[in-house]
Amino acid sequence: MNDSHSYAETAEQHIPALRRTRIEPKRLVRVLPDEQAFQGWRTEHGGTIDAFASGDYAKGDSIVLDFGIHCVGYLTVRIGAAVGPADAPVRLKLIFGEMPCEIGEDFDSYDGSLSRAWLQEEIVNLDTVPGTYTLPRRYTFRYLRIVVLEPSRKFRITFPDIYVTHVTSGDPGRVEPLPESLPADLREMDRIAVKTLEDCMQTVFEDGPKRDRRLWLGDLRLQALASCRTFGSHSLVKRCLYLFAGLRLEGGKVPACVYEKPEPHPDDIYLYDYALFFAAALHDYYRETGDGQTLAELYPVACDQIRIGLERLDERGIVQDDETWYCFTDWRDELNKQASAQAVLIYCMKRALALARALNRNDDCNWLETEIERASKAALAELWRADAGFFVSGAEEQVSWASQIWMALAGVLDPVETTALMDRLFERPPGVGMTTPYMHHHLIEALFECGRRERAIAEMRRYWGGMMADGADTFWELYDPADKLSSPYGSNLVNSYCHAWSCTPAYFIRTYLI
Amino acid sequence: MNDSHSYAETAEQHIPALRRTRIEPKRLVRVLPDEQAFQGWRTEHGGTIDAFASGDYAKGDSIVLDFGIHCVGYLTVRIGAAVGPADAPVRLKLIFGEMPCEIGEDFDSYDGSLSRAWLQEEIVNLDTVPGTYTLPRRYTFRYLRIVVLEPSRKFRITFPDIYVTHVTSGDPGRVEPLPESLPADLREMDRIAVKTLEDCMQTVFEDGPKRDRRLWLGDLRLQALASCRTFGSHSLVKRCLYLFAGLRLEGGKVPACVYEKPEPHPDDIYLYDYALFFAAALHDYYRETGDGQTLAELYPVACDQIRIGLERLDERGIVQDDETWYCFTDWRDELNKQASAQAVLIYCMKRALALARALNRNDDCNWLETEIERASKAALAELWRADAGFFVSGAEEQVSWASQIWMALAGVLDPVETTALMDRLFERPPGVGMTTPYMHHHLIEALFECGRRERAIAEMRRYWGGMMADGADTFWELYDPADKLSSPYGSNLVNSYCHAWSCTPAYFIRTYLI
User: Fold this and answer.
1) Which residues fall within 8 angstroms of residue A267, CB to CB, at 6 or more apart?
2) Is residue A190 domain-shared with residue A82, that is, in the same domain?
């Protein structure tokens, strides 16, 4: 089989069941501006849930509930009437926030580049009071602000019951506890990472359950790694791989992301690195499962991505650069992607080669060995600056963290030189740094792989530990310790604060530290 | 049986089925300010539905659909994506209007005394695009404004299908056509009146399907009259009478209105005239149906209302006046209700007497005859001013249209004097006039009953014909030809433009003119 329809059918056969858990709010909070607090907002205790449930509210009242934990699910609220019977609909504004900033700031002032519709705000009109309402949309939040816009003058409203039905396809019971001997902060980091992954595990591995709620190949690859060490959801990884295989773009290209609803369909975005990662993700899946049927069925798609990737090489054997968003690598405007794209190509060809060997595809083995050698030699010849000890990227010969890290992961230099390169990064850090946890994942992976275990742990503590110190319930899409309001979208309100590509501390801790 | 629970059970056994009809929009319109137009707004053709269905829309676009007819029901809209795939939720504002003013004016400027939640405005976030959405609430409208708040920059949205599922418990097939010999304007008036009634006929006779959507006794009495001549929904009248009987307030008082949801319950409003109308409505129901079992079961409740009403008489035998909203009569601040309340008491006692006779309750007959005589004599002795030829009301001896009309309906004077009183109203009109179609109904009824058929028709043409000239699709809650923005609630936006108590031209035309 190598037709999209059959792939899509296999994907649909592996839709997981969702587990549902009732979560009730833990307390009321006040959200207050505070220059010292993360992103300028802190919470303080604002009352008990008992007081909330027995109180009554009039037009203009505003309450913030703290559910005490990051939730992904469906809100149910029971509304009652006090003083008099309800003689008109109740109109409420509901604002759901993963973070205090979403509760503290006014969404009407939002001017980010992504749709404001991602900001979780509803205005609801409820006709029947008393009544119990379950909102139809799924929300991702820890905090919920309720603004009472309209009861009539005749009555006051009450909230005798409110809860969220949390959903995930991950089974926390399958996650092995960590040994007590592991330092407490790393166990806590693992707990938060596992929770991050759990909340992104729905009927696909979503990138972020608040935003974008879709399946990206770059996120999938990291989630699959973490899942193997925690929830063991191989079936969900398989489903996602088949979705990508079933939803290829023109010319057989794997899209950067796909949507599940109303029926599975691809976005029109093709990213050079993400498409190549299909081979890497399939490699990781096969290594973990030994599932030869899936390997045989999806291998042609993986090979196609390599073939398509190779078409971008110029006569020197170097990935052609351009000004478009052709390759992801990291969220960093000034970053030139040429060198990292070259490295990702090599990295993925090496993994495709392992698959070709497993399938005894000798022709493919020869082809891949040749291409790996060509691309690696070209990288050394054209991008490596032995005098500086760094790889350069693009016409401006940019030196960035990303280029070095990806060349290290691709193994273009020999192991001793690779370790030296990674050490050099810290001794003489390039000016073009890293933005996302996604890029930081590759830093950590490269450090572990070249034997720099202590530095890897230190960097995890600096970066993910920084999020913890800043109050993360789940790990974030973006984190720049030097600019805590940073966002690639023009507003930190729309950043995702539970983001799949940030979950890999669980993978590192469980792969390298126990 | 005389217990609330049994009454309520009988009411529940008569919940009617709703008929559902699909209604599609007929055209696009523009709503434009125009000082010459009713309430300052007119519509003009803005495009075809084909153009709308094949167009695509971006952030900031605003479209007004005209469904061409007054609808009560559930909106279904199919949303598609054009240009690119939808990569974010769609956020729309939907504004439903019975009248152009609701579409033309900004609800955010509303400052009426009733809850803004009655204004039909939704902000919806739709996650799945393409997708078909049926909104959970029922709306009452002819016009629908769609404001595109948020698609992302990546795509434009389309509306390939949109319709309303209109609901009513009235069966238009049961309405007899009028003879062609009847003047065309009266046939048109009847058509609009029947449509008004149809749209208020849900699982109770609602007062207005936009607002308040509940069962008021004053409205029920008029709807039942019109229903007998049109839809013949005796079962729905029965259900409503049993609901009132089953939901009495302390002391056995019938409430002025009741709610159906979440389960039937009374409002805490008691109105002197409305409670007494229970007897009148039961009388009308029995006259039309001969349903002796219902009469026997509900008669005690009707008698109780008379008994409670009599308790308000002072030592002179006159209804005690006060400054509270104890009696409805009409929406008119300066109107004194004493005389009309006295007349309603007499009017209803006469109907209770007819019921007592039908049941051979001789003791009750004697009691009612005595009380009718006492109240009528007191009215003549204390409220009638023979020199002026009018009844007065309250300590200030106010002379109003309402007082004369109700005294005429109560038959306090003899028939010749009553006719003279009604003629005098037009020869020397009192300064305190009428506001509502509800009060105008009683004017017309009094004119027909005293033989002033031509004047009755002329007044119907002046008043309901005025609404027709002003563009009524259904007849309105309020209509003051001299002040077309008038509202008892501080804003004409919240007035109901399909209101049960305005449906009685169908009753008059079908009772007195054919």
Assistant:
1) A214, A255, A256, A257, A258, A259, B85, B87
2) no
Residues 211-230 of A with CB under 8 A from B: 212-213
Asked if B212's CB is within 8 angstroms of A85's CB, the reply is no
Number of folded domains in chain A?
2
Distance from CA of A501 to the nearest CA of B (A): 19
Read off the DSSP letter of residue B178. P
Residue A129 shares a structural domain with residue A203: no
A9 vs A239, A242, B131, B474, CA distance in Å?
10, 8, 21, 53
Q: Which domain holds residue A36?
A: 19-168
CA distance B19 to B16: 9
| CATH number, position A363 | 1.50.10.10
Q: Looking at beta carbons, which residues of chain B come within 8 Å of A87?
A: 212, 267
Nearest CA-CA distance, residue B167 and chain A, Å: 17
Residues A218 and A283 in one domain: yes
Residues of A within 8 A of B261 (CB-CB) are 127-128, 131
Chain-chain contact of B116 with A84 (C-beta, under 8 angstroms): no
CB of B259 less than 8 A from some CB of A: yes
CA distances to A403, B168, B218 from B222, in Å: 82, 18, 7
> What's the CATH code of the domain at A140?
2.60.120.260
pLDDT score of B152 more than 90? no
Residue B262's CB is within 10 A of a number of other CB atoms, namely: 11
Give residue-wise pLDDT tens across range B186-230. Answer: 999 999 999 999 999 999 999 999 999 999 999 999 999 999 999
The answer to whether residue A11 sits within a structural domain is: no
Give the residue on A whose Cα is nearest the Cα of B125. A117
B130 and A89: CB-CB below 8 Å? no
To the nearest whole angstrom, how far is the Cα of B104 from the nearest Cα of chain A? 21
| pLDDT higher than threshold 60 for residue A446 | yes
Residue B4's pLDDT is: 86
The mean pLDDT of B235-256, rounded to a whole number, is 98
Distance from CA of A58 to the nearest CA of B (A): 12
> A151: which chain B residues are within 8 Å (Cβ-Cβ)?
115, 117
Chain B residues 45-84 with CB within 8 Å of chain A:
84
Give the closest-approach CA distance of B443 to chain A in angstroms: 30
Q: Are residues A410 and A503 in the same domain?
A: yes
Q: What is the distance of C-alpha A447 from the center of its chain? A: 21
Q: Which of A110, A140, A168 is the last residue of a domain?
A: A168
- Give the number of other Cβ atoms within 10 Å of residue A306's Cβ: 24
Distances (CA, A) of B416 to B280, B420, B422, B449: 24, 6, 10, 12
CB contact under 8 A, B152 and A123: no
As a whole number, the mean pLDDT across chain B is 97
Answer yes or no: is B180 within a domain.
no
Q: Is residue A436 part of a domain?
A: yes
Residue B12 falls inside a structural domain: no
> Do A316 and A442 fall into the same domain?
yes
pLDDT (average), residues A70-86: 96
> For B114, which of A88, A122, A136 is closest by C-beta distance?
A88
Work out the average pLDDT over B422-432. 98
Distance CA B288, CA A318 (A): 94
- Write out pLDDT tens, residues A267-283: 999 999 999 999 999 99
pLDDT tens readout for residues A384-443: 999 999 999 999 999 999 999 999 999 999 999 999 999 999 999 999 999 999 999 999
One domain, residues A142 and A221: no
Q: Choose the closest CB to B122 out of A88, A125, A149.
A: A125
The Cα angle at residue A75 between residues A71 and A77, in degrees rounded to 5: 135
Inter-chain CB proximity B151 and A115 less than 8 Å: yes
The answer to whether B117 contacts A131, with C-beta atoms less than 8 Å apart, is: no
Question: Domain end: A133, A168, A203, which one?
Answer: A168
**What per-residue confidence (pLDDT) applies to B136?**
97
Together in a domain, B381 and B500: yes
Same domain, B153 and B258: no
